[in-house]
Amino acid sequence: MGEGNMPEELLLFIGTLNREAPYFQGARGDGLNVFGFDEQALRFRKRAGYGQVENPTYLSVSPDGRRVYTNSEVSDWREGLVTAFAFDPATNALDYLNTQPSLGSITAHNMISRDGRRLFVANYTVGVGGPDQSVVVFDLLDNGLSPAVAHVAHQGSGPDGARQERAHAHSVTEVLQGGMVIVADLGMDQLITYRIGAGAGLEKVAVTQTAPGAGPRHLALHPNGRFVFVMNELNSTVTAHGFDAASGALTPIDSQPAVPAEARAGNHCSDIQISGDGRFVYGANRGHDSISIFAVDQASGQLSPRGFVPCGGATPRHLALTPSGRHLLVANQNADRVSVLARDSETGGLTDTGAFLQIGTPMCLKFAGV
């Protein structure tokens, strides 16, 4: 087996900011990158890069690491782009396949369907004009992405006039059972469940209203399929919900602060991850620059706060657990640094290893195989 495919090395895909946007603090990245990460030695090795994709602020990777789908989030475009790449782990060749318009502005999140047939995309959307679609579905083809096969626009607002002046879909997450997605709309304070039809159509089956001004952003799914955890960007909380796989309905269970009370005014939550055994939830806090830790009651879904640890940098935008669960990687956007935190599987605790990757404006981290 060649050096480029060493079994001990994990494939890590990193999207970095390479074009200025008024709501980010500088663009020092170089597009899409592929690294090998040696989890034993805690070393990173550059394997490939593609600089001609603009602002790949979110991406998804097929389980085998051979397909990558990036969102291009450019502030003054009325439509973002979604680009498909092929990656060959044996040769480290990263090849462009094709690009499709996202049918909405500020393309924020995507996810490959569990059956590998589709890509779900969420557009945050700002202003008015253009297609202005909130959620879009693409078919995945051998040679890239089809044109959009389904889409839906959200309409609504929330009490925060600066951030909730209109609908802002921030993520789209397919449930573990498949066939349904939950869209977190930060602007409307809603979690909206859609059933995916045979023709990829989106049928709204349930709407859950969050606390006013919560601003739901990202979701984490418990491996038992019964609980959903939500990172709320605007009011800095983490909420737990029960999920009914038959109806798509979400039922509130618990809400916990993501940061200390004195830090809430200057904090904006970002990503949320759950350990593979479902026992611990981790949330990223921009402003407080910390990772919050919660233990999960496996019977009820209740959350027990286990404190906060420094994020190993500044402005933690995205998190990634290694497939083994032994480490949590943090994309520290404004520190130009991916930090490596060791994770205790028994206590859920996190410790900064001191290992890091210096890279300009990291925005999204994805391991192949998870």
UniProtKB/TrEMBL annotation:
It comes from the Bacteria. Pfam families: Lactonase (PF10282). GO terms for cellular component: cytosol. Keywords: Carbohydrate metabolism, Glucose metabolism. The keyword Transferase does not apply. InterPro entries: Cycloisomerase_2 (IPR050282), Haem_d1_sf (IPR011048), Lactonase_7-beta_prop (IPR019405), WD40/YVTN_repeat-like_dom_sf (IPR015943). GO terms for molecular function: 6-phosphogluconolactonase activity. GO terms for biological process: glucose metabolic process. The keyword rRNA-binding does not apply. SUPFAM superfamilies: C-terminal (heme d1) domain of cytochrome cd1-nitrite reductase (SSF51004). Belongs to the cycloisomerase 2 family. This is 6-phosphogluconolactonase.
